[in-house]
Give the backbone structure.
Amino acid sequence: MREFGYERAFDVSGAVALLGDDPDARFLGGGTNLVDLMKTGVERPARLVDVRELPLDRVEPTEDGGLRIGATVTNSDLAAHPEVRGRYPMLTQAVLAGASGQLRNMATVGGNLLQRTRCGYFADVTQPCNKRVPGTGCPAIEGEHHNHAILGASEACVATHPSDMAVALAALDAVVSYETADGPGELPLAGFYRPVGDTPHLETALPPGALITAVTLPPAPVAARSRYRKVRERASYAFAIGSVAAALDVEEGTVREVRLAFGAVASRPWRARKAEELLTGARADAETFAAAADAELAAAQPLPHNRYKVTLMRNLVVAVLTELAEEADAR
């Protein structure tokens, strides 16, 4: 591990000033991903700015009826918050599916959004990787890729984003607030992660030196009946091989509103806009759900060893939406 400096910030402006424009400095929250990457040499910051003491650790209602979640709220506190559990259950379920209890106690909301891929080639500094060292290649395309992207990938990178929480936030139209030396700003989660293209090392649209301060959830009555379902290779703590965040409002057998996002299939949480469009106003049955999933997955470009994800995601969409529709019928 490279030698590094350490400073603790106690207010947002001070934290931003400490980081400055230094490309070798990093904000440190819970450190559950960053510190691991420092140990392996993937991340080599010259300085860490500890932001855990910033006053960003509250979940508060917004004037329009949504929720504002501070960036240093721990994953455990987020999942347990009564407003989140009652109004946005898919978010609680996603957070609880995402890590062990010990990690949830440390990990922060802001850090969760910025965690980096678990692709083995990215994590191994002896291997080439365009995300880690631009221009060196993507060995996963010809190598080990059974858990890599089937949507939105490119010849430069086929890695997937590991966050469960971000998938639920994508379905909920969350907005990320940040602070820079030039003042505050906002990014809808739909535009927070950059398309992979030929620059996979540029992962978010955050300005240089920006500090995430909060995530805001707009009011979404449809989210009260929602679910996050994760498929993984073992029952204990593991990253997803596919996941779905879904919310469904059904009246007299017809879909009035639906939210749908996929995880572990792309370099970012994948909002299933085409499927949502086809489902809105349609019959809430398994045949319709399957057709919508097929339409969304028509753009998939799987590699030889991850073709199974197309079928897995189709079945997952049908199962989760069917469960939500049956619950609506039982009301």
Summary: The mean pLDDT is 96. The first helix runs from residue 12 to 19.
